[in-house]
Design brief:
single chain, about 425 residues, mainly alpha, Cytochrome p450-Terp, domain 2, 17 helices, 5 strands, binds s-citryldethia Coenzyme A
Length: about 425
């Protein structure tokens, strides 16, 4: 029976070390015994951007990037997108099991009891300029929520953690919609808990005056599916931020704001907005070859393409591409879809993209649907943050309950000056 160990020989000393292999990993602190001099710190791994480093053990989400597989708690994303509501999936991600009918009813009621935000939060949002980016408002306002619930810092009390979970999942759609209404100079529409989670969000976004807003069922379902697809994605940049910031034992609002700030970046959750700006810039199908040439020349990226993990089609992009047809039947076809399809057609047969295994990711088509549904470009990253809040919280809880986790504090390879003495200002050149 082969031994589950790794034998390493340090050729600087001729010494050999046998390290245990667990879950196909070696524990990096086992490398510290590898030294040249006894008082050396010992060996570390060097892994900028964590290209090959497992930060944690998790049972929440599984991705196989080569096969294009995504599962939440073992369930394939395609089945969940087809058969569930977003809150059903959020329950699964947080609890580990799909809810029974009673559990789902109680969970939905609990969330609906926490959709309102303190009136002072509205005043706080009034302070933003009329043209403030809604994602900047979202990040700031979620952080500010920590000041309204000081008990949230009691993170080791399960009941307190649960209350903040309900508040965060319940309130993020309200914060998002209020940010949008502020940017339009329109009065806020308060939550209507008679509606579904997504119906209520659409109502807060688009209702005008006293006229009852009835979200189109196809669009309401499409948003539900998009929320399911965006709910979690293991250790992406923003979830890593949630875990790292949460590891200092700060309250979950502050950690969620940090995660949302990471998501805001155009390489991450800001990509869906960047895709539409790219399509606007290309403007017509006949300019696609020229644009592809500039990308291959290193003058920019094909936004919505590529992924750190998926080296095959992002399964979410496949679902979204099919969903687009259903939405466009209701809203009318987004003319930019033709540019996107041409970009994909050319990229998938071009050596530059094939060699780098660049495929459409979750952001490539989602923005086309959001735009067709009437959301402005700047709201796209906010639409990503709403459902991802349940994934962030699930990872935050898993991190807190993992006995192996401590405050995140990586090491560095120091290549700076050795000791040198102070130089008085009159002697500096
Ligand atoms: C999300 O991690 C997650 O799970 C994220 C996410 C989630 O659900 O949380 O899936 C959501 O963030 C999806 C990704 C959205 N971002 C974009 O669409 C932005 C465009 N994509 C790229 O910036 C890039 O593909 C990343 C950031 C997504 C991944 O970057 P990596 O893994 O660091 O890869 P890399 O930048 O090292 O690229 C490898 C090569 C490079 O070329 P060379 O230097 O080898 O010549 O591929 C090239 C890159 O220049 N490349 C691209 C490209 N993406 C990578 N070239 C053109 N267009 C692109 N989109």
């Amino acid at each position: 029976m082969p031994k589950e160990t790794l034998t390493i020989t340090d050729n600087r000393t001729g010494k050999t070390f046998e390290l245990p292999i667990v879950n196909n990993t070696i524990h990096s602190t086992d490398l510290r015994q590898i030294k040249v001099k006894d008082d050396d710190f010992g060996m570390m791994t060097y892994d900028p951007a964590f290209m090959n480093t497992a930060l944690c053990k998790s049972t929440i989400t599984f991705i196989d990037g080569d096969k294009g597989i995504l599962r939440y708690r073992g369930y394939p994303i395609e089945q969940l997108a087809e058969k569930c509501t977003y809150l059903e999936v959020a329950y699964l991600i947080l609890h580990g099991e799909l809810p029974t009918k009673e559990q789902l009813t109680s969970w939905t009621t609990d969330i609906k009891l926490h959709t309102f935000i303190h009136e002072n939060v509205k005043l706080l949002m009034e302070g933003f300029r009329y043209d403030a980016h809604p994602m900047g408002m979202f990040v700031s306002t979620v952080a500010a929520l920590s000041t309204f619930y000081p008990e949230a810092g009691n993170i080791f009390d399960a009941g307190t953690r649960w209350k903040q979970t309900l508040r965060l999942i319940g309130k993020v759609p309200t914060v998002a919609a209020f940010a949008y209404r502020h940017s339009k100079g329109m009065p806020y529409v308060y939550p209507d808990n008679e509606l579904s989670f997504t119906g209520n969000f659409l109502n807060m976004m688009f209702r005008i005056g006293t006229v009852k807003y009835n979200p189109h069922p196809v669009l309401e379902r499409a948003l539900e599916i998009l929320f399911i697809l965006h709910a979690d994605h293991e250790l992406n940049c923003s979830t890593t931020a949630m875990r790292n910031v949460g590891s200092s034992h700060v309250d979950p609002y502050s950690a969620t704001a940090a995660a949302a700030a990471a998501l805001y970046g155009p390489l991450h959750g800001g990509a869906n907005e960047a895709v539409l700006r790219m399509l606007d810039q290309i403007d017509s199908i006949d300019k696609v070859p020229e644009f592809i040439k500039t990308v291959k020349g290193g003058e920019g990226k094909l936004m919505g393409f590529g992924h750190r993990v998926y080296k095959n089609f992002d399964p979410r992009a496949q679902v979204i591409k099919k969903l687009a047809d259903q939405v466009f039947e209701v809203t009318g076809r987004n003319p930019k879809l033709d540019i996107a399809l041409e970009l994909e057609r050319i990229a998938l047969q071009d050596e530059y993209f094939m060699k780098r295994k660049l495929y459409p990711n979750v952001d490539f088509y989602s923005g086309l649907i959001y735009q067709a549904m009437g959301f402005p470009l700047q709201m796209f990253p906010v639409l990503f943050a709403i459902p991802r809040t349940s994934g962030w919280i699930a990872h935050w809880q898993e991190m807190l309950q993992d006995p192996e986790q401590k405050i995140a504090r990586p090491r560095q390879v120091y290549l700076g000056y050795d000791k040198r003495d102070f130089v008085p200002i009159q002697s500096r050149k």
